[in-house]
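User: Structure please.
Assistant: Input sequence and predicted structure:
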Amino acid sequence: MQIITFPEWNLKFTVSKVAFSIFDIDVHWYAIFIVAAIIIALIAFKKQDGKYGIRFLDILDLSIYLLPISFLGARIFYVLFS
């Protein structure tokens, strides 16, 4: 459990790191925020489709490769330097 405080407003929240569990697999809050950020970025790219000469389908194709590589690279970095 984490305690989040806002001293200016005299607020304290106790938050669990785990948002929910599915079949004994814990889903953490940071994973939900990462997925939400990816979805918001793809929606923003969709709205800007063709504005700079880049099609949304090209961005989608690129994200198929970049997202797994990014997660793998972040994990390797964590393992090497922690």
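Residues 56-81 form the longest helix (26 residues).
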